[in-house]
Write a structure and sequence with these properties.
6 helices, mainly alpha, 127 residues, 57% helix
Length: 127
């Protein structure tokens, strides 16, 4: 499933993630006196579009781990040494059966897969 589909399938989770990113952006520019006040207000009021959110997620899925941590959804990426290093994803290992045995050849692939599962779990929690 692509990131756009994940956001559409999980609108409540998408809103939590959007607010989290918007708040983090606002916190970082709030401390910067060189950023004009009207731009700070724009960021706070407008937030992030789905297109921008998709870019953030696809570029750096690991940046979502803090959002999910705050919502008690723990993601683990586990490196395994075989012929070469592969990665496994584990999400909420103590609460749900999301222990994925499929190996990924890059950490980013494993992260994207885990983030998709975490969106689903958060959506269920928010319903």
């Amino acid at each position: 499933m692509n990131t756009k589909e994940i956001l559409e399938k999980n609108p409540l989770s998408a809103e939590v993630v959007r607010k989290w990113f918007t708040n983090k952006m606002f916190e970082s520019i709030q401390k910067d006196d060189t950023v004009p006040e009207d731009f700070k207000n724009f960021v706070l009021n407008e937030g992030l579009s789905n297109e921008n959110l998709i870019i953030f997620i696809e570029t750096n899925p690991r940046s979502l781990f803090d959002v999910f941590d705050e919502n008690n959804i723990i993601i683990q990426i586990i490196p395994i040494k075989e012929d070469k290093i592969v990665y496994l994803s584990r999400v909420n290992q103590f609460e749900t059966p999301y222990d994925f045995k499929r190996p990924y050849f890059t950490r980013k692939e494993a992260e994207l897969f885990a983030v998709e599962a975490a969106f689903d779990i958060l959506e269920e929690k928010l319903k």
